UniProtKB/TrEMBL annotation:
It comes from Poecilia mexicana. Residues 79-195 form the CUB domain. This is Attractin-like 1b. SMART domains: CLECT (SM00034), CUB (SM00042), EGF (SM00181), EGF_Lam (SM00180), Kelch (SM00612), PSI (SM00423). It is a single-pass membrane protein. InterPro entries: Beta-prop_ATRN-MKLN-like, C-type_lectin-like, C-type_lectin-like/link_sf, CTDL_fold, CUB_dom, EGF, GBD_ATRN, Kelch-typ_b-propeller. Residues 1005-1050 form the Laminin EGF-like domain. SUPFAM superfamilies: C-type lectin-like (SSF56436), EGF/Laminin (SSF57196), Kelch motif (SSF117281), Spermadhesin, CUB domain (SSF49854). The chain crosses the membrane at residues 1217-1236. Residues 742-862 form the C-type lectin domain. It is found in: Membrane. One of its GO terms (cellular component) is membrane. CDD domains: CUB (cd00041), EGF_Lam (cd00055). One of its GO terms (molecular function) is carbohydrate binding.
Length: 1360
């Protein structure tokens, strides 16, 4: 702009300008300006394309997201790989959205050596028991494991923290996350900090550095707060000083109550009408005490803890004891004895503790049937090898997750009961096992229970009853999950009873019996679906079952300074209190929780005594309040007088019981009606059973509780149905009418007179065979039947299935030898002329021989019962490698980290603490790191690292290792169990020799040893017959595995293929009819003849037939040629040929009279050679080709160079007389034309269907706005709601059918909100009939019925 304010436009022209040679700077100046101007023009002419969505962990380049290392997804929103974090603080997350299926992410946090790292879980939501986050105190998965997180982690009470702050002390922390292929939830957000105070001192103190540079920071707590994180309050309300107690500031800083006061703050009287929880300090504190799935018993105020699961068994103490009065722990040093185990049972009797079964986790997870006895005074172990009971009860089940009690029977005998459990061989066990110097599996009465894993059981000695609650069990229709069942087992009568269910399914919980009340605490409440209490694994639920009133009550959760959610803990009772120890809540716990219920003695009036509870049941007796005991009920189901009114049972509550015993042995008030259904006892019934002792035999119900084939096969009255994976009872009569069941066979005696051969035909017509009487049971039955017929004056001498095999040998028809034992020859028999035997004298079991053509009076047939007991598949637990395990993909799952094969219906209970890092059901990974051939595969496994060789071309070796270098397993001499200890082995990959150790990221150059790299990571030129971005595959025409320096070799296809399968070398033959891995065989089963090793293969044509070859399948895509051969059948007839195809092809026709035609050395005379044609017709004259003098003449047809997709080749060969006016020729020509028309019509129909598919696939889509109303009160179930209104109705071609799409809300259980990470909605579609939607009134319908004239059929709609 000039000074005057006018805009002046100037035009700059860039072009060639003449300059002198002496001024080269001018050229350079114009070149620079020209380049800048071109760049500006290009930039404005083609601006960078933006991305539709934000790139979370990546950059937008040309409209798509390019992810940073370790992130994947269209928005770079999912983690997948390894990360290294070195900042003093930060966070790690799976991404902003739900994590993806099959996710594997690993984070390594590095600090100074021995620095303290703290992890705080701000958000965590994964699928319980399937998707896990592992935290290791070190730089590899071989470091000590400190926590395993899974499920939904939220505080139970405001201010409480469900997830403890995880701490590592090695200076490293390695976190590994794995998700499977099912539910994917919102994931996690984890903060970390180095050398910070725990939980920021919980807001009740200040973080103070240590006195020296090497010391760590610590919390200085405010008054009335203590603990490492200042999170434990003490001396609340000054302990009610001075009347109730005082605050002891010299020791543990807690309240010391006066004799008449109790509670954490001395606010409750002794005795008290209120309950309370306390959390005593652990003395001495030690992480080696932490464990889960252990067992505990009490003996003289000492709690003995045996076994259990722990992360690291190197410092594991098998036996601990805890003084319940002083609160002091002691380890019990033992020499010898059993190896560590968990999931076992424990039962105390006098001075001995009996331990049975369990899983030997340190020995590859074997489940054992060992019985060990620990003597407490001498502190010694002894293994018992008991004898087995009677043959019918010989099976002793090796189980885990069971319970056991030592009980004294009314006879004075003491036995150990083992209840339920899971067996890797026999699945979920529903039996009770008894031990008293010998094992016994008794037959029980009453209800038919369903056994399982992880239930709780408590024994009440006053009523000799065991109460069993919950567990993980087999359910109907082949399903598995948690249950809320409650059973009572009477040990004297061996009778089961069903009590009221709790309504809260769980397993791995605890139960204790106090004051007539069953107290259930904690457990895993996730029912393997996203609707199971969110996705929460750990529970602090506290339930009470009132035995007297058959009533469940939910008690308040423990009101302590922190959450106490857990499963896998134990509970014992001593001095009127319940002691809960250990368990698992992402970390292994070593705390003791004490619950003291209300005391009946504290109620001074009868009214308050009777109304005491919930959590305690009291009765007023002789002027004072005392606890109610189950023995007071005398085994009756009738409610006691002080219970509230019990509603009358309705039929709906009884319908779920499917057998007479369960129907009549429960507290619902049911009866078994007409031997087919369970209804209320107050309902009318023709023939009703109200007492279980009157029930018939219950074989069918017992069989239905057997959970797999092996357990079903143990019961001779049951049979396993493989198709439905269910065990059914065999019918009482397994033979059809007219047959008699004898053992495993059906026999039939007939009185007709027949020869032996006719008798055999008669039996075969009845789907049987002439009887081979090889068992004494069969012989006894036949002789008894013949004697009965003699008494009726019907004497028979029937044929039996015994005949002479050679001069001196007789054998039965089933090929078994004749032993002359149960049946014997009469004197003088067998005669030389006799070749077949019949039963002459039943009185003496006498046989006589006769010619087979002679007749005998009668015959005996046999056949199988029709219920053959097939063999069972090998149990999953017996497979020792991945390939064998995954050969049954729907039944077995392979865990590579533990090298175990488990039943798919027991995966959750096989690894309750996340022991399996990853599982497979199809493709098997290498069993160890050395089997992985590329760096990317290697670093995909958390236990592996990559040692790159000095060539820097991508070659290397995958080996077990850590961030600091390779590792090697330590061999410990004399170690009983498998050791997992690993030591650094830096010599395996030395940097000073040019090797490069990679643990976080692979080296940039990854060319598998077949190329060097340019620009750091781009393979310059693949050598050694390889191709691909990383030279990872063989070139076309070659096969092999070129990864990590592997070699490629040429495909060997005998000239019939150009390419082969890259890894296996299997050739893709190009000529139809040639098969084999090397195209070395003709498909002779489908009429292809020839020798592909010397020539090719031909389809052998029949004269006067039409042949159509459709090459439209995926398997046909490599075919480009097909060959035929035809020989004239008659010498005086011509050979006419017609060929047409849907696509163009090349054609060659030859003829030959030699037997070597079609091979390399054969002689063929060419007749026709055509290219790029679609059809061809010709007639080969019998005179021209002298059919009469050349009887071996053969015509060879070569059709080639056609495309695969939608190719159809039709060929017709027929004979004709050589006369132009012959009527037969015209007729055949008409037939050819008709056939061609049919073929064309079929082709057009296929094309029409293809167009319809394309039309359906390209139909427009539209958006639909959906408004969801807030949920109100529940509506009546039976109230009609009307048909759902569709989101869309898409009619199909023809207007007769349509695709109906509706939006449906999924059930959410007790919560109004869907589970985290899910919308709670699904889109459902169905194919519906819309041809009858026109409304008709009643008059029109009646007139239509009178009109009998058939209407023309409507055109059938087509819907793809």
């Amino acid at each position: 702009m000039e000074i005057g304010g006018r805009c002046k436009t100037r035009l700059f022209l860039f072009g060639p300008k003449l300059v002198s040679r002496s001024d080269p700077r001018g050229i350079h100046k114009y070149l620079v300006v020209y380049a800048l101007f071109s760049f500006v023009l290009l930039t404005h002419a083609s601006p960078a394309k933006s991305c539709d969505k934000s790139c979370n962990s990546g950059k937008c380049i040309n409209g798509s997201c390019v992810c940073e290392r370790g992130w994947v997804g269209d928005q770079c929103q999912h983690c997948q790989g390894r990360f290294k974090l070195t900042e003093p603080s930060g966070y790690l997350t799976d991404g902003p959205f739900n994590y993806k299926f099959k996710t594997k992410c690993t984070w390594l946090i590095e600090a100074n050596p021995n620095a303290v790292l703290r992890l705080r879980f701000n958000h965590f939501a994964t699928e319980c028991s399937w998707d896990h986050m592992y935290v290791y105190d070190g730089d590899s998965v071989y470091a000590p494991l400190v926590a395993v997180f899974s499920g939904l982690i939220v505080p139970e009470t405001r201010g409480n923290e469900t997830v403890p702050e995880v701490e590592t002390t090695s200076g490293y922390a390695l976190l590994h996350f794995f998700s499977d292929a099912a539910y994917n939830l919102t994931g996690f957000n984890i903060l970390y900090s180095i050398n910070s105070c725990p939980n920021n001192c919980s807001g009740h103190g200040k973080c103070t550095p240590g006195n020296s540079a090497a010391s760590r920071v610590y919390c200085e707590c405010d008054k009335y707060w203590k603990g490492e994180a200042c999170d434990i309050p003490y001396c609340r309300n000054n302990c009610g000083s001075p009347d109730h107690g005082y605050c002891d500031l010299t020791g543990e800083k807690l309240c010391v109550c006066n004799d008449s006061w109790q509670g954490p703050d001395c606010s409750l009287t002794v005795p008290s009408t209120e309950s309370f929880w306390i959390l005593p300090s652990v003395k001495p504190f030690g992480t080696s005490l932490a464990r889960a799935s252990h067992k505990a018993v009490v003996q003289e105020k000492v709690m003995w803890v045996v076994g259990g699961y722990t992360f690291n068994y190197s410092s594991f103490q098998m036996i601990l004891n805890y003084n319940l009065e002083s609160g002091v722990w002691n380890t019990v040093p033992i020499t010898g004895g059993p190896v560590p185990r968990y999931g076992h049972s424990l039962a105390a009797f006098q001075d001995d503790i009996y331990m049975f079964g369990g899983k030997l986790e340190a020995s590859w997870g074997n489940v054992t049937d060992e019985l060990w006895v620990f003597n407490m005074p001498s502190r010694t172990w002894q293994r018992r090898s008991p004898v087995v009971g009677s043959p019918a009860q010989t099976q002793v089940y090796a189980v885990e997750g069971h319970t056991a009690h030592c009980v004294q029977l009314s006879s004075g005998e003491t036995i150990m009961l083992v209840i339920f459990g899971y067996s890797p061989v026999y699945s979920y066990i529903s039996n009770v096992q008894e031990y008293n110097l010998m094992w016994l599996v008794p037959e029980t009465k009453g209800a038919v229970p369903q056994g399982g894993y992880g239930h709780s059981s408590t024994f009440d000695s006053s009523s000799s009853s065991v109460y069993v609650h919950g567990g993980y069990k087999a359910l109907p229709a082949g399903k598995y999950g948690l249950v809320d069942d409650l059973y009572r087992y009477d040990v004297n009568t061996r009778t089961w009873f069903i009590l009221r269910e709790s309504g809260f399914p769980r397993y791995l919980h605890s139960a204790a019996l106090l004051s007539g009340t069953l107290l259930v605490f904690g457990g895993n409440t996730h029912n393997d679906t996203s609707l199971s209490n969110g996705a929460k694994c750990f529970s602090a639920d506290f339930l009470a079952y009132d035995i007297a009133c058959d009533k469940w009550t939910v008690l308040p959760k423990p009101d302590l300074h922190r959450d106490v959610n857990r499963f896998g803990h134990s509970a014992v009772v001593s001095n009127g209190s319940m002691y809960v120890y250990g368990g698992f809540s992402s970390v292994l716990l070593n705390d003791v929780l004490v619950y003291r219920p209300p005391s009946c003695q504290a109620f001074m009036a009868e009214d308050g005594c009777v109304k005491a509870g919930p959590g305690v049941r009291c009765i007023w007796s002789r002027g004072r309040c005392v606890p109610w005991e189950p023995s007071m009920a005398n085994g009756s189901f009738s409610p006691v007088p002080f219970c509230s009114y019990k509603t009358v049972t309705v039929d709906e509550l009884c319908y779920k019981f499917s057998d007479c015993g369960s129907c009549t042995a429960n507290t619902k008030g049911c009866q078994w009606c007409d031997d087919k259904k369970c209804i209320s006892a107050s309902s009318n019934c023709t023939t009703g059973v109200k007492n279980f002792t009157e029930c018939p035999v219950r074989i069918e119900q017992v069989c239905s509780k057997l959970a797999n084939c092996k357990s079903c096969s143990l019961n001779l009255n049951c049979q396993w149905e493989q198709n439905h994976s269910q065990c059914h009872s065999l019918p009482a009569q397994q033979c059809s009418e007219g047959w008699s069941q004898v053992g495993d066979a059906c026999l039939r005696i007939n009185s007709s007179r027949e020869s032996y051969d006719n008798a055999q035909h008669y039996c075969k017509n009845l789907n049987g065979n002439i009887a081979s009487l090889t068992t004494s049971k069969q012989v006894d039955f036949v002789l008894e039947e013949l004697k009965k017929l003699q008494q009726e004056e019907k004497r028979l001498s029937p044929w039996v299935g015994l005949r002479k095999i050679n001069v001196s040998y007789w054998g039965w028809e089933d090929m078994s030898p004749f032993t002359n034992s149960s049946l014997r020859w009469l004197p003088g028999e067998p005669s030389d002329s006799g070749f077949c035997a019949y039963l002459e004298e039943p009185q003496v079991s006498g046989l006589r021989a006769n010619p087979c053509t002679a007749t005998a009076h009668g015959l005996i047939c046999e056949k199988a019962t029709g219920y053959s007991r097939g063999s069972c598949k090998k149990p999953c637990s017996l497979h020792t490698n991945c390939a064998n395990c995954t050969s049954q993909p729907m039944e077995c799952m392979w865990c590579g980290s533990t090298r175990r094969c488990v039943d798919s219906n027991a995966y959750v209970i096989s690894f309750p603490y996340g022991q399996c890092l990853e599982w497979q059901t199809a493709e098997c990974m290498a069993q160890n790191c050395s089997g992985l051939r590329t760096c990317s595969q290697c670093l995909d496994q958390p236990e592996c690292g990559w040692c790159g060789d000095p060539s820097s071309t991508g070659k290397g070796l995958c080996m077990e290792g850590s961030y600091r270098g390779p590792m090697k397993r330590v061999a410990r001499q004399g170690q009983q169990s498998q050791t997992h200890d690993m030591n650094l082995e830096p010599a395996s990959c030395l940097n000073d020799k040019g090797f490069e150790w990679a643990f976080i990221n692979c080296p940039a150059c990854q060319c598998n040893g077949h190329s060097t790299c340019v620009n750091g990571s781009v393979c310059e030129q693949c050598r050694n017959l390889t191709t691909g971005p990383h030279c990872e595959t063989c070139m076309p025409g070659y096969h092999g595995d070129p990864t990590n320096g592997g070699k490629c070799q040429a495909c060997k296809c005998n000239g019939h293929a150009n390419v082969c399968q890259v890894l296996t070398g299997k050739c893709f033959c190009t000529t139809k009819g040639i098969k084999g891995d090397q195209c070395q065989l003709c498909d002779s089963e489908n009429r292809y003849l020839g020798n592909p090793l010397r020539g090719t293969c031909y389809y052998n044509l029949l004269i006067d037939y039409q042949f159509t070859f459709s090459l439209i399948q995926e398997d046909d895509k490599h075919y480009t040629a097909i060959n035929f051969m035809a020989s004239p059948e008659q010498a005086n007839k011509n050979l006419d040929m017609s060929i047409n195809a849907s696509n163009n092809f090349n054609l060659n026709i030859t003829w030959s009279v030699g037997s070597t035609a079609g091979t390399i050395s054969g002689e063929e005379v060419p007749i026709v050679s055509k290219t790029n044609i679609k059809d061809y017709r010709d007639s080969f004259s019998c005179e021209k080709f002298t059919f009469r003098s050349n009887p071996n003449i053969t015509f060879y047809v070569y059709v080639s160079n056609f495309s695969w997709r939608h190719s159809v080749v039709t060929l017709l060969v027929f004979s004709s007389f050589f006369h132009p006016s012959c009527f037969l020729s015209l007729l055949l020509v008409a037939a050819v034309v008709w056939k061609i028309k049919q073929t064309c019509w079929a082709s057009r129909r296929r094309e029409q269907l293809m167009r319809e598919r394309q039309q359906m696939a390209s139909r427009p889509f539209a958006s639909v706005a959906v408004s969801l109303d807030a949920r109100g009160e529940l509506t009546e179930v039976l109230q009609p709601l009307g048909a759902p209104k569709p989101v869309a109705m898409e009619p199909c071609f023809g207007g007769k059918a349509a695709v109906l799409t509706v939006l449906m809300r999924l059930p959410s259980g007790f919560s109004d909100l869907p589970p985290p990470g899910q919308s709670g909605l699904i889109v459902a579609s169905a194919l519906v009939d819309i041809s009858q939607q026109k409304p008709l009134d009643f008059k029109d319908k009646s007139q239509a019925l009178k009109n009998r004239k058939a209407l023309p059929p409507a055109h059938q709609g087509t819907c793809v």
